[in-house]
Amino acid sequence: MTRDAATLRATLTATVHFDFDQSDLRPDDKSLLDAKIPILQANTSVMIRVSGHTDERGSDEYNLALGQRRAEAVVKSLTLLGADQTQLEAVSFGKERPAVQGENEEAWAKNRRAELASR
């Protein structure tokens, strides 16, 4: 992979984080989404899976629903910014795939996220 391709992939897959018990995008993450649009528009065959994740607090059912809302918030925002809906898929893993282990705010903050990956 060339350096330019690696940079594009890193931009496209940059993780979006969320506040506790929220599925609204944080203002500081909007620029992450803005940067993805030209890449998606220039590469219409690229398909992205947006997976929503939560921290460990709350029931399985609640966290699956919250993770889904987070993934859908990212998809909706990307679509409103100009991405083609057919390139995007939202899924939830709830609390089942933590990014980091730990039972403190630092770990929980890293686990409240939406990850983007090529599919």
Secondary-structure blueprint of this entry?
Layout: H1 3-12, E1 16-17, H2 30-42, E2 48-53, H3 60-81, E3 88-94, H4 105-111, E4 113-118
Parallel strand pairs: 2-3
Antiparallel strand pairs: 1-4, 2-4
Which key features would you list for this structure?
119 residues; alpha+beta; 60s Ribosomal Protein L30, Chain: A; 4 helices; 44% helix
What does this structure look like?
There is one protein chain. With 119 residues, this protein is α+β, with helices and mostly antiparallel strands. The protein has one domain: OmpA-like domain (60s Ribosomal Protein L30, Chain: A, 2-Layer Sandwich), CATH 3.30.1330. The chain contains four helices and four strands, in the order H-E-H-E-H-E-H-E. The protein has helices spanning 3-12, 30-42, 60-81, 105-111; strands at residues 16-17, 48-53, 88-94, 113-118. It has a four-stranded mixed β-sheet. The longest helix has 22 residues, at 60-81. The radius of gyration is 14 Å and the shape is globular.
SSE order, one letter for each helix or strand: HEHEHEHE
Strand order of the largest sheet: 1-4-2-3
Please report the total strand number as a whole number.
4
Distance between the termini: 17 Å
Poorly predicted regions? none
CATH architecture: 2-Layer Sandwich
Give the class-level CATH name: Alpha Beta
- The figure for the number of domains is 1
> CATH topology, anyone?
60s Ribosomal Protein L30, Chain: A
Structural class: alpha+beta
Helix run count: 4
Work out the radius of gyration: 14 Å
Helical residue percent band = 40-55%
CATH superfamily: OmpA-like domain
